[in-house]
Each structure stands twice: as C-alpha cells, then as structure tokens.
Amino acid sequence: MTPDVDWFALSPILSLLAASGIALLGAVLVPRALRKLVGATATALGFAGGVVFAALVYAASEDGEAIIEGTFARDRFAALAQIIVCGAGLLTVAISWGEPTRPWATTERGGDRHEGEYFALLAAAGAGMAFLVAAGDLMVLFLGLEWFSIALYILCAIAGERVASLESGLKYLIVGSFGSAVLLFGSALVYGATGELEFGRIADSIRSGGLEDDPLLLAGLAMVIAGFAFKASAAPFHMWTPDVYQGAPTPVTAFMSAATKTVALVLTLRVLVTAFPEQTEYWTIAIAVIACISLAVGNLAALVQRDVKRLLAYSSVSHAGFMLIPIAANNELGGRALLYYLIPYSAMSLGAFAVVAARERELGSAVTLESLSGFGWERPLLGVALAIFMFGFAGLPLTGGFVGKFYAFTAASDAGWTWLVIVGVVATAVSLYYYLNVVRALFMRSAAELQAVAVGGSPPREWLVQGAVGACLLVTVGSFFAVQPLIEFAKDAANQLPF
Amino acid sequence: MTTALVVLPFAGALVVWTAPLSRFWTGSLALLVALVEVGLWINVLVGFDFDEHGLQFDQRVTWFSDLDVSYHVGLYGFSLWLVGMSVVVMAAAIAYGYWVGRERPRVYFGLMLFLLGAVVAVFSSQDLLLFYAAFEAMLIPLYVLVGVWGGPGRLGATVKLVIYTIAGSLLMLVAVIVFGLSQGTFSLVDSGTSDNTWVFLGFVVAFAVKAPLFPFHAWLPDAYRESPPEVAAVLSGVVSKAAVFGLLRIAIAKFPEPAEDFRVPILVLASAGLVYGSLLAFRAVDLRGVIAYSSLAQMGLITLGLFALNDAGFNGAILQSVVHGLVSGTLFLLAGTVERRATTGELLRLGGMARGRPLLATLLMTTGVIALAVPGSAAFAGEFLILAGVFRQGWAWAVVGAIAIVLAAMYTLRLISAVLHTRPGSSVSDEALDLRPAELGVLVPLVACLLALSVWPAAISDTAFPDNEPRETVMENFR
Hints:
The complex is a heterodimer of chains A (499) and B (479). The longest helix of chain A has 32 residues, at 163-194. In chain A, a hairpin with a 4-residue loop joins strand 1 (65-67) and strand 2. With 499 residues, chain A is an all-alpha fold. Chain A has helices spanning 11-29, 32-60, 76-96, 115-133, 138-156, 163-194, 199-209, 215-231, 240-247, 250-275, 280-303, 308-329, 332-363, 375-378, 380-393, 400-414, 418-443, 447-451, 463-481, 483-494; strands at residues 65-67, 72-74. Chain B is mainly alpha-helical and 479 residues long. In chain B, helix 1 (2-18) runs antiparallel to helix 2, helix 15 (311-342) runs antiparallel to helix 17 (378-391) and helix 16 runs antiparallel to helix 18.
C-alpha cells in the first residue's frame, strides 16, 4: 500500500535532488569547459529553489503535522532549518566557484578536477540535510543522516591531490561512521524498548508503558544523544573536527560548519522534545554536561591554535556548547533561542571560512595567524568582515551573536540553569582572547611583520566570494537590529514542538 | 531628539568609513559631526526642564517584544550633564586627532565617531539590554584605537583592557538577565527594585572595572600609557563615567537595600583607591602615569560621593564627574602636546618648559590648579560636596578624603613644576614651540568650560536632580 505523499512538503528536497541530478549528468555529458558552470548554476538554482520552497512550506504550515504515515514532519520548525541550510548552501556555491583554481591543484595528472561531481555532491548533501531536519521517525532520521554524511565524506576528500584532504575525508568517514553506528544502535535500543519508530509514538509508548526509567530505553537515549553530539561536533565527541575542518577544501568546511551544525542541533532538539518528554530530568543534565565539556575543550584548545581553520574548528566545538545551552533549557524560549542563534551563527561561520578561503587562494598555502598579518589593511572588506565575524562569535554587540548569546543565556536562566549560564559566560570571556587574536593579526601587527608575508602579485578579486562575505556580513549585523521579525519566525517554528 | 544625539555619530562613522574622502575632508567631516553633536546637545539643554521629574526627550521603539526589550533612550538632569561633558571632550579629542594627523584617517575618525555614539547611547539608554550593548560597544573602538594607534606596548595593553572589561561586563550580563527575568521587563523605567545581593554585586563589579575602582584597576596604567593621548583623554574622562552612570542609575536606584548593606565595604575600597591612587600618582615617573593614577583616585572620590547615599554626595559626585572628565581630558591632551615637543613624557627629562612658552604654561597651570581643587575652582566645589556628604556617614571617611586632597595638591604641583619649572630637561630643546593656534583651539574651549563651572558650579550641582532632591529622586527610582 502506498501512503499519501505530500509532495509540496518535500519540494525543498526535490529541488535539491533535481539540482544534484543535473549537475551529475552535466559532469558526464557536458564539455569539460562548461562543467563547472553547469554544475554551479544548477546547484545554486537548486539551493535558491530550496529556500523559496521551504519559505512557502513555512508559510503554509500554520499547524505542524505528521505526513507520509508519520515518517515525515511538515512543520515550520523543519522549514526554518531548511531555509538556513539552503541559504548556507547557496553561499557555499559562491565561495566554491573560485576553489579549483587554487595553486596546489595539479591539473596535469588526469586533468579532471571533479568540478561537476563537486557541485552534485554539494546539492546532494543539502538535500540530505533538508530531509533529515524533517524526519519524523527513527528510520528516516538514520537515512537522512547517512545521506548527507556520505556526500560530505566524499566532499572532504575531493581535493585528492592533497594528502590533508584525503586524511580529512578518511577521518570523517571512520569517526562519522562510528557516530552513525552509535546512533543506529541507540535507535535500535529505543525501538526495542518501546516497539515504536515514530517520535510521537515513542513518547506515548513510554507514557503508557511506564518506561520512564527503563534501562534499555535510557541506554538507547544516551546513545542517540552521543550520535547527535558526533555530528554537532560537541565535545567529547569532537575529535574529528579540527583535522577534518583543516584538511577539507575550505568551502566544504564552511558548509559543514554552518549546515551540519544546524541540522544536528535542530534535530537533537526535535527528537529529545518530541520523543523523550518523560525523560527530561535525564537528558537535560546530559545535554548540559556535554555543553560544559564542549565549552571547556573548544575554548581552551582554541587558545593555542595558530592555523586559522583549526582555530575556527575549535571555535565551532565551543559554539556547539553554546547552542546546547538553550536545548538543555528545554523550554519554548530555548527553542526560540536556538533557532534564532543558528541564523547569525551560520552567517558568521560561513563568512569567516569564506575569508579564509579568499586568503588561502591569495597565498597558495594554509592561513595561519602569522600569514593573516596586515590582511585587514590590504583587503579592507574581507578584513573588516572577518573582524566583525570574530566580534560576533565572541558575542559583542552590533552582531547577531550578541543577541543570540543573550537569548540562550536567558532561556537557561529562565529554566533555572544558573550555573550553566555562568559556565557559558566564563567561556565567552576566554573565547574573546583567541577571537581578538585574529583581529590583532589582521590589523595590529607592526610593519616589520607585514614584510614577512610575501604576496606575489595578488590574484584578481573574486566578486563571488566578496559577495558571499557581504551577504554574511549583512545577516550578521542585520540580525542584531531585526531581532523582532527573526524571533517571530523562530517562535512560530519552535512553538510547533511539544514543549 | 535624543535619538538624533545617539544616531548622528554612528551615521557619521558609516559615512567616514565608506566615503573615499581625502585626509583633509575626512577629518573635517568628523570634526563637523562632533561639533554638530555639541550643537544638538545645546539644543537639548535649552529645551530641558530641570524642575520636571522623570525622563525627558525620551523615545521608545520595541526591539523584541517577548522579553520586553526595547530601544528606549531619554535623559535625566544628571545624564544630560554627563552627555554634555562627553560630547565636548570627544569633540576636543577628535579635533586633536585631526590636528596631529593620525595615520589611516578614515578608519581612525570613523572609530572615534563610533565611540562617541556608543558613549552617548550608554548615558541615555533606559533599557538594560540596550545599556549593556552600548557599554560593550564602547570597547570595540577602544580596542582598535589603542591597538592600532597606540605606543610600543599597545598589544599587551589591549589584552589587559579587553580581558578585564569583558570579565566585568559578562558578570553584568548574568546580572542583567537575572534581574530582567525576575522583573518581567528589561526596561529601566518600568522595572521596580530588587534586593538580590548577587545581582547587585554583578553590576557593581562591572562598573568597578570600567571606572576603574581599586582593586580592579590593573588594566589602567598600561592602557592610559599606551593609548594615543586623545584616546587616553576619552578613556579616563568620558568612558570611566559610564561607571558613574551605571552605579547611580542601576546599582543604587534599582538595589536600594543591597546598596545600603554594602555601603561600608564599598566606601572602604573607594577610600583605599583614593589614597592609593594619589600616592602612586605622586610617585609616577611620567606625565601619563600621574594623570592615570590621579584618575584612579578621582574615581574613588566620586564613588565615595555616590555611596554616601545622600543629597550632598549625589550632587557632588555628578559635579565632580563632569569636572574630572574635563580636567583629565584637558590634562591628557596637554600631555600629548608636551610629548610631541619633548618626544617623551618622563618627568626627569622634562622641565623648564614655561620659559618662552607662556601659552602652554598658562593652560597647564590653570588646569592643574583646578585639578588640585583650589578654593574657588569647580573641583573644589565638587570635592567639598562629596566630603560634606560622606561626612554624614562618619567623620573618618571625610578625614580620608581630606588627606587625599592634600595628596592631590602634592602630585599636581609636582607635575606642574616638573614640566614647567625646574631646570630645562634633557629632552626639552629651545626650538620646541609654544602651543600652536590649532592646539589652542582644542584646549581653550575645554579650559573655558572648567572656568565657567568654577564660577558657577551650581549650574550642575543644583540641576542634576529635579527640585534639588537627589536622594529622594534616586530612591524613588527616578520617577
């Protein structure tokens, strides 16, 4: 029996799948010179379509409902996350455009730079993420997770002529598969305990069966949380993050840092709130502890990094911690805070990696704090933008990061987690040191140090990267002023979860 | 109107940053914006009704409604005077930077205007989150200004400045959240009072770092020494007064009981800072050191006045805040002019600069005499009120204050004689010129303000609070 399929709810995913298919066909059928153009255009259109369709679904889903026999959720919560993912994807296409021209790409060997495949995989990863955030049961959840993960494994390793990229792909594959396996095992335990796959029914079954303290179920819950923590790169499940972020092509890193984190956190909130409302006393503590460890590990490790991509990777670990705080709060304010915070966070993260990508292409080597010296004066737009992203990460005002942190802390405080707020605040103070280190490198190094960096004949400006950075800047600063409309969106979305 | 005061500098900063103007036009534009800001403030002053209770010239727009956070600005009598002092000192600082010809003018002047906007926003905000945002926003331009245009030790100075300030203000963030949630609103006007000691302390520590108050002052010597002089002028004169505003408007008005309970410990720390700062100022080896530590002492004195928690104390604290803003701004700018001539601020290598430089000597002497609170000066009026206020809390406090005033005379006279008199120092050459007309244009208005306040200190001390009933106003939450 074929269930009813609400094709409209699936439209953002279908748009991306179509883009992926076109890009993949283009990689085979289109002449080599045009492959990149076709792939990039198709993918950009796919992501743009995803944004539009997700917005339409958002507008048309005033009441959240389960569709396709309960396997899939059509609600504003998923739609908002899809908008963020697709927006991030669109900007990633812009950042990726200049990537294969990087100096270390050896085109002699075989000559194919996998341009078509790259964009096809990017769209496929986006589709998997858009699919995952709307998951309504454990099966779809695992399917979506593997879908986008496999695409990302290949994307990390796609610059195969660089050992670091291969290493990155391999590490992500092994550790990521382990994370997926843990999640799958946890799902199996939950199914074993409750006999249900669908999130809502799991909750019902726990309630009716009196399974609140069932050891099998709790073990399953713990493993599910660990599985999500792997994907969200929360400590102590973050081991892969620095190496993978550093080794992967920078646009891929940018996409991962923004989109993967969004879907992992959004899904964590959805699963915990819809499937395990009876176990709040267990999972809120677990999430709070993971948040603390992430904040501590991420911030302390970032203090000693010299490589900017590694630094941003640890910063991403610490931000996983920050954004787990509102999840631990387990209230409507927390849901709102998470969804709001993800918007400026994604923009800042994408933007920061885009600037790193631009600098990397200029230098032809990895970007370190040393090789950033004076960059702010050479390239004012990129330099100022990177500085503002750093201020935003640190939660300084005139960026959405400020309001996001305020909301997250307020939600936690409202739920009575005062100690968690204090941990978050201390972590923010520590983080300021390394974020300002970047600003210092950009603008404050002396002229003598500037000489140390030989930039021989800078390449032509990449308008696409600059445009992407400008867009990220707009979102980062704009979300500080336009809090009310964004919070309204986040509120409507978060209120569809059964807090 | 208040919004115009807040927004104009930010708009000016944006224009300066983005418009590709030459050095000359960038500086002129920035100076023009700063002067228009002074004009706007005079316009507000003229229309201000000092007898009226409550907020004036206020404007309110919802920022986000679910937590009741709004963009709400407005002025009280005392904040009007703090804003006035800020716009005047900032205009002088910008003019000084223009005259000195700072490198990378577009960035520099944009940051100075941004700082001006943030400062005015701090003094006029009536919403806790807006206040907090403005309070933090001051730090960004300061960080870059010190870090890029500062002296050789600037990187270390910025790290200290930022870490200290942020550690303090993040404590305040927790306090803001807990207070706002418990009140159901983040509006300073709508919220009532609280007796939560921890929240009170969160606020007090943040302001104590910003002021700075003993023992939270470790960032001060480096920051004041390594900044460009006009930035040091703004830091010590203007930015430190954000702490005065916060202590008065938030810590004391919102937490009357904890303020009463912690009066004695705070008075002890303030007195300690007053004496300690004065002693350090007396022993400091360079110009900036003297002014920096005297600022520490003066902030201790102002806190003494605030936490006297009575009429004379509040009036004196506000008057002294304005006077100290002008004095320390003038002194730092004067120090800048001296350092430009002698290439050093070390007192041992200065001296004898009065000979052949009558204008410099006159201005430094006048400002110095006002700074050491000679009877008849504005600072005398302020310190007298503070001492009278604190005397009512116990004569011992007033004794400490009186000792500190003697010390103030000692370090100020030492400064004056080391620069102007004694025998010509090794770094002072005969060719070093007297003050140029442009420098006079920067400094004379500041000194004129000080002289005007010396003639009529009551202009501030009688009008800072409606009906001249400070304690009642503060305790009734400025309603």
